[in-house]
Amino acid sequence: KQEVTQIPAALSVPEGENLVLNCSFTDSAIYNLQWFRQDPGKGLTSLLLIQSSQREQTSGRLNASLDKSSGRSTLYIAASQPGDSATYLCAVTSGNKLTFGGGTRVLVKP
Amino acid sequence: NAGVTQTPKFRILKIGQSMTLQCTQDMNHNYMYWYRQDPGMGLKLIYYSVGAGITDKGEVPNGYNVSRSTTEDFPLRLELAAPSQTSVYFCASRGTGGPGNTIYFGEGSWLTVV
Q: Core-most of A53, B9, B29, B82, by most CB within 10 Å?
């Protein structure tokens, strides 16, 4: 059974600092890994999708890496802004299922 | 292109009532999923479908039923609602192959059982 863990559960940083969010999974036989953002009381917005054959994906200030052998992915957000405050979730596709981590709640202080 | 559409957005049910949450996608995706998210928690898989006529249980299927008669629609039925089913429900879909694996979510359905 695939299990996905995100540590820490919450993170607070001053504006301008780089954010590093972690995602680990137990079964390395994955098709892809996706990072999402969720604002309070809202749905999920896709940020980045990394295929199992890729090592990283970049979009603007966001960069996500994937290391299947160690079962880890890291989401980097450069030069954080207060608008980056949200919960970030990772999800792993393996077999027919999507398994989510519990999320990391991020607060960027002005 | 509407993506994934869920209705209703908000609903209050009395204990023992039943209802159906509707989910429709217009991207011709084979895979569709129903998740629930309790306050401050991650998403738990209720049911999923890999194509029309095929459904399977996820982690927390008890108290729910689904059907998939068409590619577009994947309704979630709550029978005999209980307070433990108070949650936010999300429907999601994805295609197959490369970028087609991107997961798309509906905006959620907030359900309160009183």
A: B29
